[in-house]
Amino acid sequence: GEVCNMINKKYNEFLPSVQSAEDLVAKVEGLSRHIDLLKAGIENEVQRDLNVAVAEFTELKQQLERDTLVLSVLKKLQEFDTAIKDYNTALLEKKYVAAAQQLEKARSSLKMLESRKGFELKILKALGTELTVQTQNMLYQLGDEWQKLAVWKLPPSKESSSLESAMHSELHLRTVPSKEEEIAGPPVASVLQAFAVLGELHTKLKIFGRLLLKYILKPLISYPTLQPFTEEQSDVFILRFKSEEPSLDPSSPVEVFYKIQLVFEVLHKYLLNVPLEEPAEDKKECRVTLAELLGDMIWEELSDCLIQNCLVNSIPTNSSKLEQYVEVIKSTEEFEKALKNMQFLRRDTTDLLEYARNVNSHFANKKCQDVIVAARNLMTSEIHDTVKITPDSCVGLPRLPVPAAGDHLQTEKTSKLLHDDMVNLGNETKLSQHTFSLPTCRISSSVEKLMQLAYQTLLEATASTDQCCIQLFYSVRNIFQLFYDVVPMYHKENLQKLPQLAAIHHNNCMYIAHHLLTLGHQFRYRLTNILCDGAATFVDLVPGFRRLGMECFLAQMRVQKGEILERLSSARNFSNMDDEENYCAANKAIRQVLHQLRRLGKVWQDVLPVNVYCKAMGTLLNTALSEIVTRIAALEDISAEDADRLYSLCRIMVEEGPQVFTPLPEDDKNKKYQEEVPVYVQKWMTFKELMIILQANLQEIVDQWADGKGPLAAEFSAAEVKSLIRALFQNTERRAAALAKIK
């Protein structure tokens, strides 16, 4: 029972809480339904109203944007219109800058209009055309004004640029009376600034700059006698030329700078001292002026012209004048400074001054170039103008200017060396005067001059600055390398065709090689200090020159030998001389060979050194004799009459051959060389022995052989002698006996 009570009690407490929970659920459900209703209401009605409001708002916004756009377009159209009106007014009053600015305003309004997408107005095209017309109109009017401000009076264009035509060029610059000036500002300024605003200034100045260079500045540089002079009239300033002898050295840069500066001063005063835009209130300084613009356009060409046609020519050609060049450097500096002050030149420009200051290097370059040009001219001049040199000729040199104090000792020693015929060696011992001497011969006078040029340049080098000294030394080496390359090619045909020129060229090369042996040595005091140990030498070039001379002469010898053999080949092998026709052919061939040798003997006379002459003539005579011996020794049958005729042909050679040796012009002195012919002609004795055989009987031939110990055996082999015996004698027992003894 107690348990029951407990349960009841618990149950009674439990019921009310279940109740209240149920109430709560009911309430929540009611609330939930209410929310659903609200949600449905919102979705259906409120949302719809909201959409309508947004749509309206957007429409209004677009409307506003459209109106704003239309308004801004109208505003721009109005601006354009006002600008064009103001422009017309300003133009009438000749307020060019204002007019130009109005045009530019109109242009920017039009640009804005054109950039509006979706707003392509038909009217824009018309406005564009209007603007173009007005701009052209204004440019035309400005051009008109500009032409009145700077008037060119030029020679007819047919005339080429010459001193004559330069005399007819004038530039008139208009100067305006001061009354008007107060009203409109200087017309030059307003015209040029208006051009600037319209973006046309560049073109105008470019044309002006071209005319200025062509008709004023360049002629002043090119024609030293041209003087600018100016004339001022009431409303015009005239710049023209007259021709008169210049006061200083005409090509002196000092003179030229002075004239050009004068022209720039005039332009600056009357035309170009104008800022590009009208002054802005806030910044007074750093405005670009017209002078600067023009300077930028023409300076490069002008400075090039000044350097090429004026400064280059003023570089001294010998070291003694270098000191005086300071004056040119100073005037160059002042000239650049003056142009910078007038704003024609930018502050950092120093082309001219750098060039002038670099005078030492230009001096060396110019000197080297002059040397090479002179050398080239000598090398391409005629070879056959010759001078005679003897063992005691030395290179004639003018006395040179006294060098600076420091070089004193060395140069004195050097000049003494040049003018002495002795060659000093290190320890001052003397060699005989003729140790290094050349044999008497003829060389081209151009080569003698070339050698003088080399000596003179080296002397100049010893008196120059180190850098210049090195450059000059190498340009002397270049002279010889140039000779080596140029002469054989340049004179190629003549050296092949003309035996005399080949001989002179041979001598020229030997003469140069001879001088190159000692050339560096004579200047060693000065040169070796600068050039690394003993590089101051020319000895390495010697073998090349000797080879060059030899090869050319040997080639000529080959040509002559070929001609001799060619002539002898028409002698019908010297066979059957009893036939008249054959004998005539052989006789003619021999006469032609002698004639050829005589002619050579003449053209080489007094040209080749005697020993070379004798060797050359001996070699050629030997070629002829040797060929004749070979042909006769090869004959299989020689009749008695043949033998007589062959003998008489050979006698012509023996009697007249030596007479072709005429190395010297004085006949009596040539006897000695003619008697020495056997020394120079290897086959001379062979030829004499052949003549003996042609006249001898069998016994005499056997005696001449003398068991292989006689003179005949010295010249011919046993087989050759046997062959000759068989050709000359009938086949008899006596012949057989004789043949048996030749072994």
From TrEMBL:
Limits of the ZW10 C-terminal helical domain: 588-742
GO BP annotation list: cell division; endoplasmic reticulum to Golgi vesicle-mediated transport; mitotic spindle assembly checkpoint signaling; protein transport
GO CC entries: endoplasmic reticulum membrane; nucleus; RZZ complex; spindle
Stretches assigned to the Centromere/kinetochore protein zw10 C-terminal domain: 436-566
Organism field: Ibidorhyncha struthersii
Stretches assigned to the Centromere/kinetochore protein zw10 middle domain: 142-379
Recorded name of the encoding gene: Zw10
Protein name: Centromere/kinetochore protein zw10 homolog
Subcellular localization, as worded in the UniProt entry: Chromosome, Centromere, Kinetochore; Cytoplasm, Cytoskeleton, Spindle; Endoplasmic reticulum membrane
InterPro entries referenced in this protein's UniProt entry, alphabetically: Zw10/DSL1_C_sf (IPR046362), ZW10_C (IPR048343), ZW10_C_2 (IPR055148), Zw10_middle (IPR048344), Zw10_N (IPR009361)
Taxonomic lineage from the root: Eukaryota, Metazoa, Chordata, Craniata, Vertebrata
UniProt domain Centromere/kinetochore protein zw10 N-terminal: residue ranges: 2-84
Entry membrane topology: Peripheral membrane protein
Claim: NAD is one of the keywords in the record: no
Quaternary assembly: Interacts with NBAS and KNTC1/ROD; the interactions are mutually exclusive and indicative for its association in two different vesicle tethering complexes. Component of the RZZ complex composed of KNTC1/ROD, ZW10 and ZWILCH. Component of the NRZ complex composed of NBAS, ZW10 and RINT1/TIP20L; NRZ associates with SNAREs STX18, USE1L, BNIP1/SEC20L and SEC22B (the assembly has been described as syntaxin 18 complex). Interacts directly with RINT1/TIP20L bound to BNIP1/SEC20L. Interacts with C19orf25 and ZWINT. Interacts with ZFYVE1.
Keywords associated with the record: Acetylation, Cell cycle, Cell division, Centromere, Chromosome, Coiled coil, Cytoplasm, Cytoskeleton, Endoplasmic reticulum, ER-Golgi transport, Kinetochore, Membrane, Mitosis, Phosphoprotein, Protein transport, Transport
Family assignment from sequence similarity: Belongs to the ZW10 family.
